[in-house]
């Protein structure tokens, strides 16, 4: 698996430092609340489980799964709800945890859903942001890294469901795509 990587963008150490910085800030900002932290599956799973360890506050967690990619490397534009939350979000302070924001469509879909369900507040923490990819307006409140418009894998992010278990974020060799 490591042999398929052309270059490492963010090392384990870079990611740990970003989690510490974001987690500390989030704990400060939410110290007087009990947020519901929502992990957007599957990509944000590693990031969420790391960032919450740096948050010394009372918090609950839940999971939601939406899909927009259907296997490839380009967004299809249609969002499907694959797994709903278990928790009633009405009146709750929500922290959405995302792996990466590209076109913004996923985030907009989730924010609309949470607003419809009467969340009290909604904030977004993303490991990575690709501002150059925006198609709809969407903004993260907490960002680990601003990334160039490249397709990245690792630390939760997949290509055809693989590479999520790489401990760092990197870019695949071109032949990995052309081989399939
Ligand atoms: P958006 O709806 O903002 O276009 O994309 C959001 C989702 O698309 C992300 O949560 C992620 O699952 C996927 N995505 C966007 N950019 C990348 C990328 O560079 N690599 C991978 N593996 N997934 C991406
Ligand atoms: Mg995602
Ligand atoms: Mg994906």
TrEMBL record:
<keyword id="KW-0547">Nucleotide-binding</keyword>
<comment type="pathway">
    <text>Purine metabolism; GMP biosynthesis via salvage pathway; GMP from guanine: step 1/1.</text>
</comment>
<protein>
    <recommendedName>
        <fullName>Hypoxanthine phosphoribosyltransferase</fullName>
        <ecNumber>2.4.2.8</ecNumber>
    </recommendedName>
</protein>
<keyword id="KW-0963">Cytoplasm</keyword>
<comment type="similarity">
    <text>Belongs to the purine/pyrimidine phosphoribosyltransferase family.</text>
</comment>
<dbReference type="GO" id="GO:0000166">
    <property type="term" value="F:nucleotide binding"/>
</dbReference>
<dbReference type="GO" id="GO:0032264">
    <property type="term" value="P:IMP salvage"/>
</dbReference>
<dbReference type="InterPro" id="IPR000836">
    <property type="entry name" value="PRTase_dom"/>
</dbReference>
<comment type="pathway">
    <text>Purine metabolism; IMP biosynthesis via salvage pathway; IMP from hypoxanthine: step 1/1.</text>
</comment>
<keyword id="KW-0460">Magnesium</keyword>
<keyword id="KW-0808">Transferase</keyword>
<dbReference type="GO" id="GO:0000287">
    <property type="term" value="F:magnesium ion binding"/>
</dbReference>
<dbReference type="GO" id="GO:0006178">
    <property type="term" value="P:guanine salvage"/>
</dbReference>
<comment type="function">
    <text>Purine salvage pathway enzyme that catalyzes the transfer of the ribosyl-5-phosphate group from 5-phospho-alpha-D-ribose 1-diphosphate (PRPP) to the N9 position of the 6-oxopurines hypoxanthine and guanine to form the corresponding ribonucleotides IMP (inosine 5'-monophosphate) and GMP (guanosine 5'-monophosphate), with the release of PPi.</text>
</comment>
<dbReference type="GO" id="GO:0006166">
    <property type="term" value="P:purine ribonucleoside salvage"/>
</dbReference>
<dbReference type="GO" id="GO:0046100">
    <property type="term" value="P:hypoxanthine metabolic process"/>
</dbReference>
<dbReference type="InterPro" id="IPR029057">
    <property type="entry name" value="PRTase-like"/>
</dbReference>
<feature type="domain" description="Phosphoribosyltransferase">
    <location>
        <begin position="11"/>
        <end position="159"/>
    </location>
</feature>
<dbReference type="Pfam" id="PF00156">
    <property type="entry name" value="Pribosyltran"/>
</dbReference>
<dbReference type="GO" id="GO:0005829">
    <property type="term" value="C:cytosol"/>
</dbReference>
<dbReference type="GO" id="GO:0032263">
    <property type="term" value="P:GMP salvage"/>
</dbReference>
<keyword id="KW-0660">Purine salvage</keyword>
<dbReference type="GO" id="GO:0052657">
    <property type="term" value="F:guanine phosphoribosyltransferase activity"/>
</dbReference>
<keyword id="KW-0479">Metal-binding</keyword>
<keyword id="KW-0328">Glycosyltransferase</keyword>
<dbReference type="InterPro" id="IPR050408">
    <property type="entry name" value="HGPRT"/>
</dbReference>
<dbReference type="InterPro" id="IPR005904">
    <property type="entry name" value="Hxn_phspho_trans"/>
</dbReference>
<dbReference type="GO" id="GO:0004422">
    <property type="term" value="F:hypoxanthine phosphoribosyltransferase activity"/>
</dbReference>
